[in-house]
């Protein structure tokens, strides 16, 4: 058996594995799959205005101090 025939057999085995995995896993992404339903959030019964948010704390203020 020559190296070319061994390479051909190995190539056929790899091609069969790739083809089988492509059939099992199916299409990639949303192609070929049904669309996901959109999430519907129910409106709150009593719309309460949100409390004002306090400003975020700032870092320390560095001032020059004379020696």
Helix content: 25-40%
- Ends apart, CA distance between termini: 92 Å
According to DSSP, the number of beta strands is 0
- How much β-strand is present in the residues? under 5%
Organism: Bradyrhizobium campsiandrae
Protein name: Dynamin
Keywords: Membrane, Transmembrane, Transmembrane helix
Transmembrane segments: 6-29
Concise account of the structure shown:
Keywords: Membrane, Transmembrane, Transmembrane helix. The protein is mostly helical. 34% of the residues lie in helices and 0% in strands.
What does this protein look like?
There is one protein chain. With 67 residues, the chain is mostly helical. 34% of the residues lie in helices and 0% in strands. It contains 1 helix and no strands. The N and C termini lie far apart (92 Å).
């Amino acid at each position: 058996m020559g190296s070319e025939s061994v390479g051909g057999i190995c190539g056929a085995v790899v091609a069969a594995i790739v083809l089988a995995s492509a059939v099992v896993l199916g299409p990639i992404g949303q192609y070929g799959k049904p669309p996901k339903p959109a999430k519907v959030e129910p409106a709150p019964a009593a719309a309460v205005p949100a409390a004002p948010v306090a400003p975020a704390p700032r870092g320390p203020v560095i001032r020059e101090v004379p020696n």
